[in-house]
């Protein structure tokens, strides 16, 4: 028995959506992210002869309908909103590859498909030849994560899709992503996260000044201690005159 739940209302961020797929009362796919599509489309110029390109910014609306499918090596998440004028489908794959440590398994986002209707008036204004189009990814390998872990990335990522509307380039902007389509061990709980390279770099950039400051402070303390010890030792030594004329005053 399969259940799907849109838990976006639990997110403190109104732009972030939360989706859960459960089978046999156990979570098998979880996804949290904020998503927006930038879609170019044609409108008539003021002379009604030439075409100009406008741009629609389409956010993934809260309260979207969803479907999901879990498998051993393939999982899928489908999200539709505004009476199915927009549908996003994410296809996940789990694979194995050979490394120096032997066979290792990982999962990735292998394909994205976005269907949109330029006749929908909320985001498309006066589109020429309005109708449905499909934008798809090409040779996609995104969100690559070791098997058994969840993918996490707070930074914004841009994925390009090619549309059936005269091969226009549709941009998918993803941010605040946490996804796990396989091997969830606890109901409604993500496994250990695998951070994206951008987040890892930003984390290093945040901690590096602190580490350098601590090292610099330690160097200063050591230098002061060495100077203090050296000064104390030299102060206690007997000073022998270097000028031989002073020897007559000694003894």
UniProtKB/TrEMBL annotation:
Keywords, ordered alphabetically: Cell membrane, Cell projection, Cytoplasmic vesicle, Endosome, Glycoprotein, Membrane, Signal, Synapse, Transmembrane, Transmembrane helix
Domain of life: Eukaryota
BP GO terms, sorted: establishment of protein localization to organelle
Membrane topology: Single-pass type I membrane protein
The UniProt record lists the keyword Membrane: yes
UniProt subcellular location: Cell projection, Dendrite; Cell projection, Growth cone membrane; Cytoplasmic vesicle, Secretory vesicle, Synaptic vesicle membrane; Early endosome membrane
Stretches that traverse the bilayer: 208-229
Name of protein: Lysosome-associated membrane glycoprotein 5
Organism: Mesembrinibis cayennensis
Lineage: Eukaryota, Metazoa, Chordata, Craniata, Vertebrata
Gene encoding the protein: Lamp5
């Amino acid at each position: 028995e399969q259940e799907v739940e849109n838990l976006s209302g639990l997110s403190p961020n109104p732009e972030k959506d939360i989706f859960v797929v459960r089978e046999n009362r156990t979570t098998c796919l979880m996804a949290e992210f904020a998503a927006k599509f930038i879609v170019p489309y044609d409108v008539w110029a003021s002379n009604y002869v030439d075409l100009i390109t406008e741009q629609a910014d389409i956010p993934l609306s809260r309260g979207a309908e969803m479907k999901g499918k879990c498998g051993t090596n393939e999982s899928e998440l489908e999200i539709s909103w505004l009476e199915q004028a927009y549908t996003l489908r994410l296809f996940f794959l789990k694979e194995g590859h050979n490394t120096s440590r032997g066979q290792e398994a990982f999962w990735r986002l292998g394909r994205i498909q976005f269907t949109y209707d330029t006749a929908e008036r909320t985001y498309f204004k006066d589109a020429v030849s309005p109708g449905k189009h499909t934008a798809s990814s090409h040779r996609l390998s995104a969100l690559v994560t070791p098997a058994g872990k969840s993918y996490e990335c707070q930074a914004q990522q841009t994925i390009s899709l090619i549309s059936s509307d005269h091969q226009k380039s549709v941009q998918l902007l993803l941010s605040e992503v946490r996804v796990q389509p396989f091997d969830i061990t606890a109901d409604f709980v993500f496994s250990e996260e695998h951070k994206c390279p951008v987040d890892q770099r930003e984390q290093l950039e945040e901690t590096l000044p602190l580490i350098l400051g601590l090292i610099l402070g330690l160097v200063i303390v050591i230098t002061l201690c060495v100077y203090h010890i050296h000064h104390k030792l030299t102060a206690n030594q007997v000073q022998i005159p270097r000028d031989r004329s002073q020897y007559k005053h000694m003894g």
